[in-house]
Design brief:
heterodimer, A: Uridine Diphospho-n-acetylenolpyruvylglucosamine Reductase, domain 3, Alpha-Beta Plaits, 3 domains, 7-stranded antiparallel beta sheet, globular, B: 266 residues, alpha/beta, Rossmann fold, 9-stranded mixed beta sheet, two-stranded antiparallel sheet
């Protein structure tokens, strides 16, 4: 995004866990700050050095260690790219429990370190559940080997959980053991155009009830996001008369074991949606082929890319109650307008999209350039709204370098004090990704 | 001579259910064909044909009397017809063959279409079909049908312009190095190329309506057809695996290797 610029002079690319351990031991003795880096696709600057820290890139730690096609447990080096793992297990009819827009560059170690969410969370849960074990190099060079492949293991504190989402502030993840679900035999998707945001929640209720176990994604895109995705060529647009009068769109995906069964359920749902007196939806498009399936997804996944092409994005990734999605977007837009920052030369668009199923809203503000005026208008304004809903200021992107000062909007003093104690215990010299997560 | 009264156009669009182009093709262990237990969808060129028929109606409005889709295939081919109906065809014909039987060869398809066209009350003025099907890549049906019927043909079309009053159609064809414009008279066979149009999504209301549109079921025997293959497939194999390249340290090594491989300077 061109928002974070590191001042590092050195990148190390170890090939083995042992080499990572030696690097950490040396840096710990010499008090040299270390930033672990995966695919460098993070959105909050977690993998970018703040000053002159050494970057430890995990890119060369990129082999699959084992895969058990019966249990579906995959053990891989941290530097494996998510897409290559997906390709690796595909012939065995398994899929990764996590999928996100950056899958072609992001690495599994980074996914775990940031507890990445993504598009499959609704179905398969968060990495806190699917990661079975980790191999971590601690700041003093000790290798913590918890790379087990057990589904059940209630023996004391579950230490690996601390590293999931710690954003590399407690240690360097070098290996991951993860449970992969069997690949669905049939997938379908449909984009629905809604006349009003108020219909999203009733729709979600109906869709959840009727599709039940085959529902695998329920994504929300507001009109601005859709228009931007179309403008920047992300996926083929719906025809003009179909999108006329639509305030927002919802993408529903189903994944199941039998195509006929899934299609029947989906068709029944669509019929029941269209045949009522006051339909919740205007119209929609049901994919007829894998090509259309990808094209519909591109409209949703491509919003991120479209936003970057449109201008300089301020990205907020927040958890708030579903019913407040639109209120938050509108309030932000009105706030910017009242500050005179909406229009040419300042903020071009305020848009919202995200994972309705997970209560996760991506609030993006697209400006011509990053300016201090916009920054101060947005923060702490947005964090205060989120706090007023008892929401999270970072649902899936993490804290990184961007939101350390705002952590207190989502975490109490007691929690933060305890986090600091844990950090001290693992990393007394503060060399592990300094300046990230905790101030 | 006074021009005869303007005739309303009847358009026939043959479509085929084929292995989806996104699917990775695998040869079956017996090497008699490919694994067909994969996702199928409408042959992409046929999708362009349906789209073109619908666009012709959008341009010419009431001058187009009917758009009829037809397919020859196993019971599941009805899904392909439903897609065509959802995109905008009015009615359809399904010539059903048993599940698992080989798909008919181009000549048999052309003869079937000829028989169907003969049966249509009100006749057929334009047949729009894909230039080839992506499963067997034979690319002959349109030409054979034109030959059997003695109609004009405009193959590999990238633009179609119909003058109903003159009963003339101006078609731009894709040829090596550019386009070729030809003027044809009706009745006419058009085969579609990729650039003709971009097919639309089938919208939900139209998918629902499509379920109520008529599908006429026929068997090959009803049309006096016999689909016994004329060709015999001897063996189907996968292309040889590509061998990865190697790195050389310097120019000398490269030249030595080239010489070893028997490549000499001209």
């Amino acid at each position: 995004m061109g928002k974070y610029r590191g001042g590092s002079t050195t990148v190390l690319k170890p090939k083995t866990t042992q080499q990572v351990s030696q690097i950490m031991k040396w840096c710990n003795e010499k008090r040299i700050g270390v930033v672990p880096q995966g695919g460098n696709t993070g959105l909050v600057g977690g993998s970018v050095p703040i000053r002159d820290e050494v970057i430890v890139s995990l890119s060369n730690l990129n082999s699959v260690r084992s895969f058990d096609p019966i249990s579906g447990i995959l053990v891989a080096d941290a530097g494996c790219i998510l897409q290559s793992l997906t390709d690796y297990i595909a012939p065995h009819n398994h899929i990764m429990p996590i999928d996100l827009g950056a899958k072609g560059s992001c690495q599994i170690g980074g996914n775990v370190a940031t507890n990445a969410g993504g598009l499959r969370l609704l179905r398969y849960g968060s990495l806190h559940g699917t990661v079975l074990g980790l191999e971590v190099v601690l700041p003093d060079g000790t290798v913590l080997d918890q790379l087990t492949t057990l589904r059940k293991d209630n023996t004391g504190y579950d230490l690996k959980q601390l590293f999931i989402g710690a954003e590399g502030t407690l240690g360097v993840i070098t290996g991951v053991s993860i449970l992969t679900p069997p690949a669905p035999q049939a997938s379908n998707n449909v984009i629905l155009a809604l006349p009003s945001f108020d219909n999203v929640l009733p729709l979600y209720k109906i869709v959840k009830r009727q599709l039940s176990e085959i529902l695998s994604a329920f994504e929300f895109i507001d009109r601005t996001s859709y228009d931007l995705a179309v403008k920047h060529g992300q996926g083929r647009a719906l025809s003009e008369d179909e999108v006329a009068g639509a305030e927002c769109f919802v993408l529903v995906e189903t994944s199941g074991g039998k195509r006929e069964h899934d299609e029947e359920k989906l068709n029944n749902l669509l019929e029941s949606l269209l045949e009522v007196d006051t339909p919740l939806i205007n119209t929609g498009v049901l994919s007829q082929s894998p090509a259309q399936f990808s094209s519909l997804w591109a409209l949703r996944e491509g919003v991120t890319e479209a936003v970057s092409k449109e201008g300089k994005p301020y990205k907020y990734d927040i958890s708030v109650p579903l019913s407040s999605f639109k209120t938050v977007v509108d309030a932000t837009r009105e706030h910017l307008r009242s500050k005179g920052l909406l229009g040419d030369g300042a903020v071009k668009h305020v848009l919202g999209y995200g994972h309705v199923g997970d209560g996760n809203l991506h609030l993006n503000i697209v400006a011509d350039s990053y300016t201090p005026e916009i920054q101060t208008a947005l923060e702490p304004f947005i964090f205060e709204i989120v706090a007023s809903y008892r929401g999270s200021i970072s649902a899936e992107h993490g804290i990184g370098a961007m939101k350390t000062h705002a952590l207190h909007y989502s975490k109490s003093d007691v929690s933060i004090a305890l986090m600091k104690k844990i950090k001290m215990l693992f990393d007394p010299h503060n060399i592990m990704n300094p300046g990230k997560v905790l101030e | 001579m006074r021009p005869s009264a303007v005739r309303l156009l009847n358009i026939l669009v043959p479509v085929k259910r084929a292995v989806d182009y996104g699917v990775k093709i695998r040869v079956n262990p017996q090497q008699t064909g490919i694994d067909l237990n994969v996702k199928h969808s409408m042959n992409p060129f046929d999708e362009i044909a349906v789209e073109e028929a619908v666009r012709i109606r959008e341009r010419l409005k009431d001058s187009v009397k009917s758009i009829k889709a037809v397919t020859i295939g196993p019971p599941k081919s009805i899904e392909t017809l439903r897609t065509a109906l959802a995109m905008g065809a009015d009615s359809s014909i399904h010539v059903e063959i048993p599940e698992g039987s080989p798909s008919p060869e181009p000549l048999a398809v052309a003869k079937t279409l000829q028989a169907l066209i003969k049966k249509q009350e009100g006749g057929v003025d334009i047949v729009i079909l894909g230039k080839q099907s992506i499963d067997d890549d034979l690319g002959m049906t349109g030409q054979m049908l034109a030959g059997l019927l003695g109609w004009s043909q405009a193959t590999f079309a990238s633009k179609v312009d119909i003058d109903v009053a003159k009963k003339e159609v101006l078609v731009t064809r894709e040829i090596d190095g550019g386009g070729e414009e030809i003027r044809c008279s009706l009745p006419l066979i058009i085969t579609t190329d990729l650039r003709l149009n971009e097919p639309r999504y089938a919208s939900l209301p139209n998918i629902m309506k499509a379920k109520k549109k008529p599908v006429e079921k026929l068997t090959p025997a009803d049309l006096g057809m016999d689909y016994t293959p004329l060709y015999e497939t001897l063996k189907v194999t996968e292309p040889p695996q590509r061998v990865g390249g190697g790195k050389v340290e310097n120019v000398d090594e490269l030249i030595t290797k080239l010489k070893d491989a028997g490549i000499a300077a001209v």
